[in-house]
Design brief:
Elements: H1 4-23, H2 28-33, E1 39-46, E2 50-51, H3 55-65, E3 70-73, E4 80-81, E5 86-93, H4 94-124, E6 131-133, H5 143-152, E7 166-168, H6 170-176, H7 179-192, E8 199-203, H8 206-213, E9 220-224, H9 228-238, E10 243-247, H10 255-259, E11 265-267, H11 270-273, E12 280-284
Parallel strand pairs: 6-11, 7-8, 8-9, 9-10, 10-11
Antiparallel strand pairs: 1-5, 1-12, 2-4, 3-5
Helix pairs in contact: 1-3, 1-4, 3-4, 4-5, 8-9
Length: 285
């Protein structure tokens, strides 16, 4: 996983680029009709039920746009909300509030949707040892926000990107010429470059599970697109040799059954790529 410092840098980049994209050479709508020194107050109004996420991000946006803006938080990240709730008030220069509005809403609507969906998986898996993971199936440019939302919803983050973990999937294995060859070449590469990265290897069937287990140094086996019966067999074969992860089209309807097979993790791209934004509004008070 990336460090806290790296994560903060990603968030700073998202804010900087989003404001550049949205404001350009000026918010001319506000500049045209609102005095430069006019002040105001706005509230973040919830119009859906779910788990709120992005409150801390909103504070960072307001700080970036205008350090003079004051935020009074009423409901923190990760808390359940219902229609009609007010998450926070923001007070200060009206132009600054309006300049921040769209980025705050776009981010919080999506983050809250992801946190809400993640929370549903977490509740579903209660009583098992299985944890829910996100994937790299994220929106380009805002991955840090989406993975942050998964954590707020109670899930865990998979690797952040291609550089913080080794993941040998079917294409790597096929292009390389086989599982054992891919693992051996990967370990040699890590040693050569003095890299300390965990290795995950994908298996497409039980025979591939057997071959992976003949190699040392594998951190986790990705049990991909297995049915329930073969997943149970795979977990039994792997035992305590390494961690296990089920993936491949797993939904809220099937996740519990995969968890009951005994896997350590379930990864789901749907946490981030198939959500319906929570309805939120920033309204003048």
């Amino acid at each position: 996983m990336i460090s806290e410092k790296q994560f903060k840098k990603e968030i700073d980049l998202i804010i900087t680029n989003a404001i550049r994209e949205d404001v350009g050479d000026g918010d001319h709508s506000s500049l045209a009709c609102i005095p430069e020194d006019a002040t105001g107050k706005a509230k973040l109004l919830v119009k859906d039920d779910g788990i709120i996420a992005g409150v801390d991000f909103a504070r960072q946006v307001f700080e970036f746009v205008d350090a003079g803006l004051k935020v009074e938080v009423k409901i923190k990240d990760g808390r359940p909300v219902k229609k009609g709730d007010i998450c926070f008030y923001v007070t200060g220069l009206s132009q600054s509030i309006l300049k921040s509005e769209r980025l705050v809403l776009n981010a919080m609507q999506r983050m809250s949707a992801i946190a809400t969906k993640t929370h549903a998986y977490v509740k579903l898996l209660e009583g098992t040892k299985t944890q829910i993971l996100d994937t790299r199936k994220t929106t380009p440019g805002i991955r840090a926000l989406e993975k942050w939302a998964v954590k707020i919803g109670g899930g865990e983050n998979h690797r952040f990107a291609l550089y913080d973990m080794i993941m040998l999937k079917d294409n790597h294995i096929d292009f390389c010429g086989g599982i054992t060859k891919a693992i051996e070449k990967t370990q040699a590469y890590l040693n050569q470059h003095n890299l300390h990265l965990k290795i995950i290897v994908e298996a497409r069937n039980l025979k591939e599970i057997e071959e992976i287990l003949q190699n040392k140094g594998v951190y986790r086996i990705l049990i991909d697109n297995f049915n329930y019966s073969d997943t149970k067999k795979a977990v039994q074969m792997i035992g305590d040799t390494c961690l296990t992860e089920s993936s491949g089209g797993i939904t809220l309807e099937t996740a519990r059954k995969y968890a009951e097979c005994g896997v350590d993790y379930i990864s789901s791209g749907a946490l981030t790529h198939s959500v319906h934004n929570m309805d939120l509004s920033l309204k003048a008070v």
